[in-house]
Design a protein that fits this description.
Blueprint lengths: L7 H6 E3 L5 E4 L12 H8 L1 E3 L2 H11 L2
Antiparallel strand pairs: 1-2, 2-3
Amino acid sequence: MPKQKSHSGTKKRFKVTGSGKVMKQGAGMRHNLEKKSSRVTRRLNQEQVLAPADAKVVKKLLNK
């Protein structure tokens, strides 16, 4: 049986930490940044932990 390939779109959007959590980029940092306060943009720019139900699906796509 050949090896399974990981989903290339998922590889670009998520990363798995050493402890097994799945991290993602926060939404809302693409446009309309002038209207958002500096406090909001700093918060949105941090990576966020994915919800456990979603993390299960992402790990399956990444073959982890």
